[in-house]
Amino acid sequence: METPLTTLMLERCAQTIEKVIMPDLTDTFAIDQATHMSLLMHTLALTVEEKSQGLREENGQMMGALGEVLRMLREEKALSQNATSNALISRLDGELKKIDAGPPDANEDNYNLKASLVETIKGLDALGEDLPEETSSSLRQQIRSVLRQQLDHAAAQREILMAAQFAFMMALLQPKSASETPDQ
Fold first, then answer.
1. Handedness of CA 117, 118, 121, 126 (dihedral sign)
2. If we measure between CA atoms, which residue out of 147, 151, 4 comes closest to residue 65?
3. Alpha carbon distance 40, 51 (integer Å)
4. What is the reported pLDDT for 1?
5. CB-based burial of residue 117 (10 Å sphere; 0-12 exposed, 13-18 middle, 19+ buried)?
6. Phi, psi dihedral angles at 176 (to 5 degrees)
7. What DSSP assignment string belongs to 103-159?
8. Which pLDDT band holds residue 43 (cuts at 50, 70, 90)?
């Protein structure tokens, strides 16, 4: 798996601060500021990498769910002449091809795939009784399951980010040397 460019840039900036800038610093305040900036960049680099990997995984799940809807709609012979079904098939086919053909942009693809999932549920609702209840129910359940996973993942990522921010703030509050310890 390829490391995102943003992650590499943040890590290299942190390393530059640690190996090039900090050795030349003599002022305690400047050293502390450089240390904190380096810690912040390392923390952000991890967050960016996790988000990028998570987006690719989410996108794969959403594409799988949309592909399954597309497959099942194409197999449903009773819908072959249905204009609503054909429009939904065309829209899904176009969206999946656009993502496969375009340059990889996980954020944009993620947004478009989520919109496609919502539009697919609306399309399934529009098909109403033309689509067998068992098929309709199965497809809706798959889509809702993927959307629920998206929501759970987003909540977990926020918790991780908040924990990292808390740890960073605690590191800022910790005295770095005996000379910084408050007088008693």
1. negative
2. 147
3. 16
4. 46
5. buried
6. -90, -25
7. PP-HHHHHHHHHHHHHHHHHHHHHHGGGS-HHHHHHHHHHHHHHHHHHHHHHHHHHH
8. confident
Residue with tokens 């496609």, as numbered in its chain: 116
Distance CA 87, CA 76 (A): 14
Backbone dihedral angles phi then psi of residue 59, each to the nearest 5 degrees: -60, -40
Q: What confidence score (pLDDT) does residue 23 get?
A: 93
CA–CA distance, 27 with 43 (Å, rounded to integer): 24
Q: Is the pLDDT of residue 172 over 70?
A: no
Amino acid identity for residue 74 in this structure: R
- The answer to whether residues 113 and 66 touch, using CB atoms and an 8 Å cutoff, is yes
Residues 18, 38 contacting (CB under 8 angstroms): yes
Q: How far is 155 from 124, CA to CA, in rounded Å?
A: 28
- DSSP secondary structure string, 24-40? G---HHHHHHHHHHHHH
Token pair in block for residue 160: 């991780």
pLDDT on residue 51: 65
Lowest mean pLDDT among 49-58, 79-88, 113-122: 49-58
Assessment of whether the complete model's pTM goes beyond 0.70: no
Instruction: Specify the residue for token string 């977990």.
Output: 156
Buried b (16+ CB within 10 A) or exposed e, 167-179: eeeeeeeeeeeee
